[in-house]
Amino acid sequence: MHLLAYLDPGSGSMILQILAGGAAAVAVTAKLYWNRVLKFLRIKKDDETAEPQTTDSA
Amino acid sequence: MQSPTETSPRADGSRHEPGSFRDPESRVFYSGDGIYRALSQDGLDDFKALQATKLFERFTADGRLVGTELLASTDGLPAELLVKDCAGVLQHERIPFVSYPYEWTFSMLKDAALLQLDLNLAALEEDMILKDSTPYNVQFKGSKPVFVDIGSFERLREGEPWTGYRQFCMLYLYPLMLQAVKGVEFHPWLRGSINGITPSQMRGVCSFRDRFRKGFYLNVFLHAKLEAKHADRGKEVKSEVKKAGFKKELIVANVRRMRKTIESLTWDPPQGVWVAYGERNSYSDVDAERKDEFVREVVTSQPWGLTWDIGANNGRYSRIAAEGSKSVLAVDADQGPVELLYRTLRDEGDEQILTLTMNLADPTPNLGWRGLERKDMAGRGKPDLVLALALIHHIAIAANVPVAEFVSWLASLDTALVIEFPTREDPMVKKLLGPKRDGLHTDYERVNFERVLAGAFDVERRERSQSGTRLLYFARPKGTGAPIDLTQPEG
């Protein structure tokens, strides 16, 4: 995400745009959920862009 | 973020626009007669990219984009008003009078929304995008919407969504839906919150049936649900969305869909307003003509800059005022006739008369951060001439504002004035006094009014209607005119 974007796009609003994009959205939606499935099955790990885990778990 | 309190004017009148501080890439300021925008390096790069587009040329040429040029040098501009590491300064064309969405009629907000979307579609074609979607970036030149925030254009970055979608819903889509579908005027909602209506708030006012209406399920119901579900997953969602590959086609599809939804929203004033729009109340034709003539003589007696027609109704006198004024503000508390006037002016392509809806007894206040971001009417530019025709009885009797108080407010504007006083015998005044207890509004009486008026203004002219129940006055600020003696009978 561009660091200088000063407006919060809203997480729900971003997902909605993917779901609402009609034909243009089919592939993206499929990929979004496929990535979630892979992540759930632990086939794919979060890539290095993800935040490092903190150790101070409550 | 700079504080708007850094805006105290310098001796030469140069100052920051206090409403322009949220975007760190560009900041608006005034100096002399000019209006300028200081840009950071990123902001300047974005502007240069915009300048090279076809859309910049096309939309500037037809006046939908505010006239803008990049200054070759910043010499002579006050250095302390430029942004930190200022890379360039733009000069903008001036809009005669700044207005806010809670003063616009339904069609004005809708037209601004369509302009915003059309600009975004044109920008996307050339790999740019509008980074926000606020109606405060649109102003009206007469009946013509003009996009004024050049700093909103930026280069499209691969994988990013339409950042302004949520803001578009909150400040354009939901207010229009509210009025079109629910019959609830959006003005108090937008005036009540500078950020607009949130998805969950909008969801709250919708019924089960509404989810089957065009655009409601996705933009309201699902939007509110997803927002609640993903509220704390900001970072995760961003990375998910990016990995899934957010394509430009997706944004284009969403903007196009939104355009269709906005197009489908309509609102019409109640039937009675349409009927009254072509008519005039409680006047004989002779009196109507004399009133036209009185206003016309004042308006054409000298060139006027900005004229306010307060209580403008169907805009008859705004149009006469336009014959001798650079620009005219037609304000009325009733949205219906103002909406119809806007539509007529829009069809005519008028760029001189700005229609606004506002109740003078409950006027636009100073709003936003420190109460400086949005200003009251006089704070945005005082008029040179005020028309207050068929208004004082509504203010004094219906809204309970004492006559002296109203005249004192008019005097505080420090401008020339055409005012009409319907006497207690006037049918409309009788109607307004009808439901009131006897003995109220004793100050609403001709001799008292004239005494108050002569105390605050130099009254130069007075004329009584043939029916005898209406009087017209032309006055200048105290000490600038040649007053007549109002205690003598009118000639």
Structure description:
The complex is a heterodimer of chains A (58) and B (491). Chain A is mostly helical and 58 residues long. Chain A contains 2 helices and no strands. Chain A has helices at 11-20, 26-40. Chain A is flat, with a radius of gyration of 15 Å. Chain B has 3 domains: 8-94, Phosphorylase Kinase, domain 1; 100-267; 271-477, Rossmann fold (3-Layer(aba) Sandwich). Chain B has helices at residues 41-51, 54-61, 106-125, 165-182, 187-192, 199-204, 216-229, 234-244, 248-264, 271-277, 285-299, 316-322, 335-348, 392-398, 403-412, 427-433, 446-456, and strands at 15-16, 26-31, 34-39, 68-70, 88-92, 128-130, 138-141, 144-147, 153-155, 304-310, 325-332, 353-357, 385-388, 416-422, 457-464, 470-477. In chain B, a hairpin with a 5-residue loop joins β15 (457-464) and β16 (470-477). The interface between A and B is large, with 36 and 52 residues.
